[in-house]
Each structure stands twice: as structure tokens, then as C-alpha cells.
Amino acid sequence: MSLPDTVLAGMRKTNGLFCSTVIRQRDMDALDRVYTPDAHILPPGADMIQGVAAIKSFWLQAITSLDVKDASLTTVSAESAGDTLVEIGRAELTLAGGQIIPVKYVVHWKRHDGAWKWHTDIWNMNQ
Amino acid sequence: MSLPDTVLAGMRKTNGLFCSTVIRQRDMDALDRVYTPDAHILPPGADMIQGVAAIKSFWLQAITSLDVKDASLTTVSAESAGDTLVEIGRAELTLAGGQIIPVKYVVHWKRHDGAWKWHTDIWNMNQ
Fold first, then answer.
1. Nearest to A85 by CA among B108, B11, B122, B105
2. Which has more confidence, B28 or A126?
3. CA separation for the pair A92, A102 (Å, rounded)
4. How far apart are the C-alpha atoms of A48 and A40, rounded to whole Å?
5. Is the pTM of this model over 0.80?
6. Do B47 and A106 touch (CB under 8 A)?
7. Which of A24, A83, A96, B38 has a 20 to 30 Å separation from B65 between CA atoms?
8. How many domains does chain B have?
9. Distance in angstroms (rounded) separating the CA atoms of residues A95 and A49
10. CA distance B122 to A56
């Protein structure tokens, strides 16, 4: 994981925004600063979804139906790939009852509008 | 999907090897020609696994326990990322009883030993 500090800082900023603003505050408009406009998500239990408007609907429904209260994201590996990045990571979602759901993911990152954003986001559960 | 024909042909060759030789013939040694030596897989229902030896054990167990008879892989999008590729795709696994399991995936491809191979492979189910 020999990425420049500025890149790692950009990734931390975007990941922090997802955890603090999207998940904790349930502010779906912050997803404009997390995903590229034409991003794909590939959620378990649903078909793939493209475009940030549809991604906002997905996350609002997912967060409210599961009653997710908090999330943390931890990078396991991140490699530069041309002017993009490929990250493998682990996430933990904390539900209202205190239950923690461990998740693993791959994100293809792109620069967009001055920030590092998620262009392709796929995840699954260990159990 | 504006990749050079030679790249698309290389992807088709590797994907074909996985379907015809790994899945249909249950020849796990062919996985040396599918994955890079230090590849990661992120399977649903298990933790992430690194290295082609461990990946062979995973697939042997998964294919035999589910009794998978056939597989097909379809590229939805593929983008070059430096000297690597990021692919979004759909797969169908056919079980012995004829049941078909739809799968979606993201693969980060790298050149290795003269071939295009899967360096990171993550998937999940729609249901």
C-alpha cells in the first residue's frame, strides 16, 4: 500500500463522509460526494444498480430497513491502476440493537470533481 | 467497452478456461492460468482468501459441495486502468439438478506470465 499520502487522505475523507454523514446522519445527498455520477453498486440480494440517483434510493432503503446506526471502513489493500485505484476492504455495520455485521468489499476509485470517489462498489458478507 | 481486440480475446480465453476446465472438468490446476499467484478472492459466506493454492482449495470444495456442472461468464463493462483492467460481469452457475444460480461480480485483471488473469475476484448473488 505505497500510495501517496495525498491519495490516502482523499480516500479517508470520502470513506469518512460515508460513515459520518450518509450512515450516521442519514444524509443521502452526501452520496454525490462519495460516488461518481455514473457509478455502479453491486449489492448482495439485489441486482446491480447504476447512477447516483438510484444509489441514493438503494442506501436510504437499506439503512432504514436494517436500522443501521454506524459504519466503519478499513482498507486492507489499495493499488493504483493508471489514474484510478482498486481497494480491498472490510466494513462493519452497527445496527440499532448493537448487532455488528462484518462486510468485505472491493471499490474501484476514480477522481471526479476534485475528489476521490467510488466508481464501482461491490460487497458481501462472511456469513 | 473500447478495449483492444487482443485484450478482449485474452479475457475470453481466461474466462473460457475457468468455465470449461475448472468448472466442467474440475481441473483445479487450471486455476494457475486463471488467477495471479497472489490473487485475492472475496466469496460470499466466507472470509477473503489470498494465494492461488488456497483459491484451489476453495473452488474444489465449493464446486463439489454445490455439485456445479457448468458456468457461463458475461462481461457487462470492462475498463482499462493503467496496465490493468476492471470488469463488471454476470455469471450463471448450473447445478447438477439443473438449477441456475445468477451471480454478479467484479474482477480486477492483471497481466501475468503472458496472460490476462484475475487478481481480485469478488461476487455475490441477487437473491
1. B108
2. B28
3. 5
4. 7
5. yes
6. no
7. B38
8. 1
9. 24
10. 23
User: Any idea which residue has 441456475 for its cell?
Assistant: B100
Q: A125: left (phi > 0), else alpha (psi -120 to 50), else beta?
A: beta
For residue B32, how many C-alpha atoms fall within 13 Å in the half-sphere facing its CB? 5
Return the residue of B nearest to A78 by Cα: B120
| CA-based nearest distance A105→chain B, Å | 8
For residues A83 and A3, the answer to whether their CB atoms sit within 8 Å is no
Q: What is the pLDDT of residue B127?
A: 83
Q: How many whole angstroms separate alpha carbon A94 and alpha carbon A72? A: 9
Burial, B44: exposed, middle or buried (Cβ in 10 Å; 0-12, 13-18, 19+)? middle
pLDDT digits (tens, 9 = 90+) for A4-29: 999 999 999 999 999 999 999 999 99
Cβ of A122 within 8 Å of Cβ of B105? The answer is: yes
**CATH, residue B30:** 3.10.450.50
Q: What is the pairing mode between strands B49-50 and B35-42? A: antiparallel
Full domain range(s) for residue A9: 5-125
Q: Give the closest of A40, A77, A124 to B122, CB-based.
A: A124
